[in-house]
Amino acid sequence: MADPGPDPESESESVFPREVGLFADSYSEKSQFCFCGHVLTITQNFGSRLGVAARVWDAALSLCNYFESQNVDFRGKKVIELGAGTGIVGILAALQGAYGLVRETEDDVIEQELWRGMRGACGHALSMSTMTPWESIKGSSVRGGCYHH
């Protein structure tokens, strides 16, 4: 029988280690960001089991800057957030009027953090759900960057 090769889970663990306290000296737990007149306090729990979802990624901050510079109107829109780390992009979209936030991962820690930050801050009703696993929609009807079902 052929060797199946290295375990992909252990490979990702070596690239994105999750040991408790590993990043405690490198990163603060809370960071504040200001976009579109909102001060967002994000907790980065590097010692948790979140792996890459624990970080506020530079790409997410760049996208928030873009939304601010272009005065993007999210009122009445539903947002699908894919791979934005702590969820800062979705939080900003909700604060700017998005009524629905769909995430690609289901994690109680992230969900608690999002709801804690969003409760009452939006000024409108907000629903949050978890997206169908990506594998099940690949190859479906995707037009203009939007998934149509």
Characterize the structure shown.
It is a single chain. The protein is an alpha/beta fold. It has a single domain, classed as Vaccinia Virus protein VP39 (Rossmann fold). 29% of the residues lie in helices and 19% in strands. The protein has 5 helices and 7 strands, in the order H-E-E-H-E-H-E-H-E-H-E-E. It has helices at 8-15, 58-69, 88-95, 108-118, 134-137; strands at residues 30-35, 38-43, 78-81, 100-103, 127-130, 142-143, 146-147. Mean pLDDT is 67; it is low at 140-149. Pfam families: Methyltransf_16. This is EEF1A lysine methyltransferase 3.
Please render the helix and strand layout as text.
Blueprint: H1 8-15, E1 30-35, E2 38-43, H2 58-69, E3 78-81, H3 88-95, E4 100-103, H4 108-118, E5 127-130, H5 134-137, E6 142-143, E7 146-147
Parallel strand pairs: 3-4, 4-5
Antiparallel strand pairs: 1-2, 6-7
GO biological process, one term: methylation
GO cellular component, one term: protein-containing complex
Pfam family, one: Methyltransf_16
